[in-house]
Design a protein that fits this description.
mainly alpha; two-stranded antiparallel sheet; globular; transmembrane; transmembrane helix; membrane
């Protein structure tokens, strides 16, 4: 009798594991893989800073080719955050929604800064519309929508 109860609880845990990932839409699942790769590449770019290889780093309008500059460390740290967020969502961690929301809010703020503040510090005044907002805002709204169900389906 105890074996049956143990098997049922293991099955339920597996079933909850599957349901959390099913809460994510297909486009978030695709971006999870992309940003997990992006997070790994951010760490690689950090290590390339010790060599003569200077990778081009760019995210949300912030660009540099010096990994150990202010912008370089900033872009690399944001890339690592995006990788952690994607990893947490894909592997259905309990804190994934919170990390995802932090990632989305930071991304939205950085896009707005790069669109409205950075043009004042560059030669020539050009406002650039950041298309990342077209995905960051729906991502944040989707995370808000599934948060209660995500927390309910703890594995």
């Amino acid at each position: 009798m105890e074996e049956t109860i143990e098997n049922v609880s293991e099955f339920d845990a597996f079933d909850n594991f599957e349901r959390r990932r099913k809460l994510l839409p297909w486009w978030v699942k695709g971006f999870c893989w992309l940003f997990m790769l992006f997070g790994v590449l951010s760490v690689v770019c950090l290590f390339l800073g010790f060599t003569n290889i200077k990778p081009d780093l760019s995210l949300y309008g912030f660009e540099t080719n010096e990994p150990f500059s202010l912008f370089g460390l900033f872009v690399i740290s944001i890339g690592i955050l995006k990788g952690i967020s994607a990893f947490s969502l894909w592997f259905e961690k309990d804190n994934a929604i919170k990390i995802g929301k932090i990632d989305a809010i930071i991304g939205i703020v950085l896009c707005v800064i790069s669109m409205l503040v950075m043009p004042f510090f560059k030669d020539g005044f050009n406002i650039t519309l950041r298309l990342e907002l077209a995905l960051l805002i729906p991502f944040l709204l989707k995370l808000n929508k599934i948060q209660k169900r995500w927390e309910f389906n703890r594995a």
